[in-house]
Design brief:
Elements (H helix, E strand, L loop, with lengths): L2 H26 L14 H9 L6 E3 L5 H6 L4 H8 L34 H14 L5 E6 L6 H12 L4 E7 L2 E2 L2 E2 H4 L7 H4 L4 E6 L3 H15 L5 E6 L17 H8 L3 H11 L5 H24 L16
Helix pairs in contact: 1-2, 1-11, 1-12, 2-9, 4-12, 5-6
The protein binds thiamine diphosphate and magnesium ion (MG).
The site of thiamine diphosphate has 13 residues, from strand 4.
Length: 317
């Protein structure tokens, strides 16, 4: 990767972090309705994986979707406008936080039913097989999804039909307030792929370059027509959603993971390798801050959808 690309990865992670910190404030000000699940702490997974895709590769995820949407090229303006339920949002203000999407960018969303989007990923990949392309489908999901029936059905068929799916498990150690070991019979989640004869790997999800490299290698196999399972070890620094009292984990555990903050680690790497100096990285941070503030102004000045539109966009032609 050249210098410019590395700095772009840094910028994306900082933009996601800042956008979400600002979203938390907007939520507390009652400007965002419904749920808000923050990706803070997990940025290296979404940014690292998506940086390795070709533009035509499909991406689909669960409700913790803001970071992955930005990594796929959605703008801060259309994401924040969607969070605020505005007509200028990427889903025209009808989806909100859990339903960001932009089909032109091959980002299929944002799904609220745990595990429900995994069969959709299998379907996207099956369509590409019919068309005879080498386009990959990248499906992100949480550790909790791997205990759901959809997960097993979707993985099984992807292997039976030799589909080009990269399954990316974001193991952030918890599904809501339940630790992996309490919910999953196998706590090393990638081993579940072995039940379907599927090649698999585990990667440090707090290291954006390691994630990118693991994804490049996995996608090479996937494009030849076999699914691959990548487990990224990560952690969410915030609660499951806003208002989570976090009684299920200790402050000490959170602090330990925060010491390995993916943005801080990448910052240190860029300095140490002399790819950028402090002033250059601070300029990127200031640019991200500005982009978010501009997006908030844009979203707040945007119109709400009109009540007449309530039955629009229910079906896609
Ligand atoms: C089918 C279904 N069951 C239960 C829920 C409630 N629920 C929402 S998020 C969640 C935890 C999922 O955890 P995980 O897959 O690890 O994702 P994370 O929130 O950690 O990103 C649960 C149980 C749901 N949305 N859908
Ligand atoms: Mg989880």
């Amino acid at each position: 990767m050249d210098r410019q690309e590395l700095i772009r990865l840094y910028y994306q992670m900082v933009l996601i972090r800042r956008l979400e910190e600002r979203s938390a404030e907007l939520y507390q000000q009652d400007k965002i309705g419904g749920f808000l699940h923050l990706y803070i702490g997990q940025e290296a997974v979404g940014v690292g994986v998506v940086s390795a895709r070709r533009p035509q590769d499909h991406v689909i995820t669960a409700y913790r979707d803001h970071g992955i949407a930005i990594a796929c090229g959605l703008t801060a303006e259309e994401v924040i406008a969607e969070l605020l339920g505005k007509e200028t949002g990427c889903s025209k203000g009808m989806g909100g936080s859990m339903h960001l999407a932009d089909v032109d960018k091959r980002f299929w969303g944002g799904y609220a039913i745990v595990g429900g989007h995994l069969p959709l990923a299998t379907g996207l990949a099956l369509a590409e097989k019919y068309r005879g392309t080498d386009t990959a489908t990248i499906c992100f999901f949480g550790d909790g999804s791997t205990n759901i029936g959809y997960f097993h059905e979707a993985l099984n068929l992807s292997k039976v039909w030799d589909l080009a799916v990269l399954w990316v498990c974001e193991n952030n150690q918890y599904g809501m307030g339940t630790a992996v070991e309490r919910a999953s019979a196998v706590s090393e989640i990638r081993r579940k792929a072995e039940g379907y004869g599927m090649a698999n790997a585990q990667v440090d999800g707090m290291d954006v370059l390691a994630v990118r490299q693991a994804t490049l290698e996995a996608l090479e196999r996937v494009r030849q027509g076999e699914p691959f399972f990548l487990e990224a070890m990560t952690y969410r620094f915030r609660g499951h959603s806003m208002g989570d009292p976090e009684r299920y984990r200790t402050g000490e555990e959170v602090r330990k993971w925060q010491e390995g903050d993916p943005i801080g680690r990448f910052y240190d790497h860029l300095l140490k390798e002399k790819i950028a100096d402090q002033a250059a990285l601070e300029a990127e941070e200031a640019r991200a801050e500005k982009e978010v503030e501009q997006a908030v102004r844009f979203a707040e000045a945007s119109p709400d959808p009109s009540p007449e539109q309530v039955y629009d966009l229910v079906y896609v032609k």
